[in-house]
Amino acid sequence: MGLGSLGRRLYSGEASINFVGRRKMWYLISAAILLVAIAALLIRGLNLGIEFRGGAEFRLPSPTCSVEQARSTASAAAGGEAIVTQTGAGDIRVQVPPIDTKTSTEVVKALSAECGVPAGDIQTQLVGPSWGGEITKKALVALVVFLLLVAIFLAIYFEWRMALAALVALIHDIVITVGIYALTGLEVTPATVIGFLTILGYSLYDTVVVFDKVKENTRGITGQSVLTYSEAANLAVNQTLVRSINTSIVALLPVVAIIVVGAGLLGAGTLLDLAVALLVGMLAGAYSSLTIATVLLAQLKESQPEMKALAQRVRGRRAAGRTKEGEEGVALPDSGGRVQPKKQVRSKRSKRG
């Protein structure tokens, strides 16, 4: 069966995956992932880049020294512990605690002599701790403003329950992405923050697509007794499932290409910082829009008195339908044997005059 055929069956209701009905399972899976993410964040913490913690960074192109030699040389010249890493392109990156311009010049001279790199070719970046704090503050302000605007938009366009469910899904995606960075030790840079804000927009888009279909399916739902709100919401998730899968695959392909080509082959660290955030966030967003946002929305809506009354009517109608089928000779699901249907009496033909 092709994906297109499956999509048509899911859209028409011929086939269905019970996302909403498996609420406890999705909550348990998300709780386990969030627990690991929060534990990693509390225990290991984030590996903040120099832009956030302040300090000095030196990049040595094509050095002749080893990482250990560069570390000992930089530590001695800077008077503090140096963090040295080697990029995919073979360059060496040296980071030291905050230092002044004079000390920075001494570090450049020491690295130049030890690693055989001309002093003019060593790239230097000095970042004060106050500037790093300002960047952190602006990132948090941008996040709060984004969430506030999202809540207002969704509350106006949909309703406050949808806004709440979407915000929970967004926070779910943020915590998972940040937890992955803490767990793997990847460096958090301004490019990472840009990636975080980007995945929030992507996750919101996916959630809005599903919620718009839920809104369409549940318009005037209290005027009928065929489907409950949860069943109508689950139908909306199934109807948008193939679209969500296709959108996620199309969006993830260039991100994977950035990781493999940009970071792996070209050694561009900034691309890796951005691409990993996008990759993790998009996967978490696709998951949460289908299993967290809509499931939580259905739970909130089912607590309303009118939705409880609707669910009761639907159950009553289905019970009456099963009773009628049993009277007509169709075996009930819990009956022990098969009931044969009664023969219908044929009507006599009227005589022609």
Question: What distinguishing features does this structure have?
Answer:
Alpha-Beta Plaits, transmembrane, elongated, membrane, protein transport, about 65% helix, 4-stranded antiparallel beta sheet, 2 domains, Multidrug efflux transporter AcrB transmembrane fold, two-stranded parallel ribbon, 11 helices, about 350 residues
Furnish the topology, listing elements before pairings.
Layout: H1 3-12, H2 23-43, E1 47-48, H3 50-53, E2 55-60, H4 67-78, E3 83-86, E4 92-96, H5 101-115, E5 123-127, H6 129-157, H7 160-184, E6 187-188, H8 190-217, H9 229-265, H10 269-302, H11 305-327
Parallel strand pairs: 1-6
Antiparallel strand pairs: 2-4, 2-5, 3-4
Helix pairs in contact: 1-9, 2-7, 2-10, 4-5, 6-7, 6-8, 7-8, 7-10, 8-9, 8-10, 9-10
Structure description:
- There is one protein chain.
- With 353 residues, this protein is of the alpha+beta class.
- It folds into two domains: 17-48 and 131-307, Multidrug efflux transporter AcrB transmembrane fold (Up-down Bundle), CATH 1.20.1640.10; 55-127, Alpha-Beta Plaits (2-Layer Sandwich), CATH 3.30.70.3400.
- Helices cover 67% and strands 7% of the residues.
- It is built from eleven helices and six strands.
- The protein has helices spanning 3-12, 23-43, 50-53, 67-78, 101-115, 129-157, 160-184, 190-217, 229-265, 269-302, 305-327; strands at residues 47-48, 55-60, 83-86, 92-96, 123-127, 187-188.
- The strands form two sheets. It has a four-stranded antiparallel β-sheet with strand order 3-4-2-5.
- A hairpin with a 5-residue loop joins strand 3 and strand 4 (92-96).
- The longest helix has 37 residues, at 229-265.
- The model is unreliable at 330-353 (pLDDT under 50).
- The chain crosses the membrane at residues 25-43, 139-157, 164-184, 190-211, 249-268, 274-298.
- InterPro entries: SecD/SecF_arch_bac, SecD/SecF_bac, SecD/SecF_CS, SecD_SecF_C, SecD_SecF_C_bact, SecF_bac.
- It comes from freshwater metagenome.
